[in-house]
Amino acid sequence: MAIGAGKLSDTAKNVAEILDLDLIIVPTLACACAAYSPYSVDYDDEHRFLGVPVHPRNSIALLVDSSLIARAGADKLVGGIGDTIAKWYESAPVFDQASDLTVFDRLAYHSAHLIHDMLLEESEPGLEAVRAGDYDNEHVRTLINTIIGLAGTVGGFGGVRARESGAHSVHDGLTRVAGAAATMHGEKVAYGVLVQLLVEGKESEVQALLPFYATIGLPHSWRQMNLEFTDGNLQTVADFAAGPDSPFHAAVPGVTPAQIIEAMRTLETLA
Ligand SMILES: [Zn+2]
């Protein structure tokens, strides 16, 4: 039984596969859909991204007590909101380019869109309730169910096409920059959403999201992530995010480091 947050459940999933054991997960944070998903995100000792092994079996049970999770505080939920809003922005361009969507892909697509709408509606009242200590609150429950449960259905039904694309590639690149481990996974992913949208040429969508980011406290600049905005660091992130094996190519086929650097430079000038 794994009782803890994303790192713990990801480690437990790896161990359960090695030992061929059934696993029950009890998440104590809602920072991502790690508790629901059948894969682990692995890092090295310096917290640099290594890979995402997909396990042959999922946990046999996932027990969610939203009032327990809410007690971890609003900041942790902000990270979860950032990771989860990416479900829509990362999967929609991949699905939009596909001509062979199954009914399950379409279910994943609609689920990702519902997640987007739920987060825009429920984040503010949910966070307010948590800050007020009102843990047994309908908005809080809906927010946590969206981050853990609904988010898991996107990759669950849509498979690899509904998993990571541009935003997580930027996140993975950011983990190679000194000091990035101090920022939550979901905050770096949320920043990556904006970079991906700019690479896609969707600046109006970035402008539409920025007030939401400002309201709930998601970062849209390197300063907000306490990272040094240097040419070398930009190149490190862009080279990794546009690498040959990067899932960014699923959203923007042939994306180049130069496009990603330009997007990051543009983003610093917005808002
Ligand atoms: Zn994530």
UniProtKB/TrEMBL annotation:
Q: Which Gene3D superfamilies does this chain map to?
A: 3.40.50.1970, Dehydroquinate synthase-like - alpha domain
Q: Check the record and name the PROSITE patterns matching this protein.
A: PROKAR_LIPOPROTEIN (PS51257)
Question: A single GO molecular function, which one?
Answer: oxidoreductase activity, acting on CH-OH group of donors
Key words of the record: Metal-binding, Oxidoreductase
Entry-linked SUPFAM superfamilies: Dehydroquinate synthase-like (SSF56796)
InterPro entries, alphabetized: Glycerol_DH (IPR016205)
Q: Does the keyword Metal-binding apply?
A: yes
- CDD domains named among the record's database cross-references: GlyDH-like
Q: Does the keyword Transmembrane helix apply?
A: no
Name recorded for this polypeptide: Oxidoreductase
Source species: Bifidobacterium pseudolongum subsp. globosum
The organism's taxonomic lineage, starting at the top: Bacteria, Bacillati, Actinomycetota, Actinomycetes, Bifidobacteriales
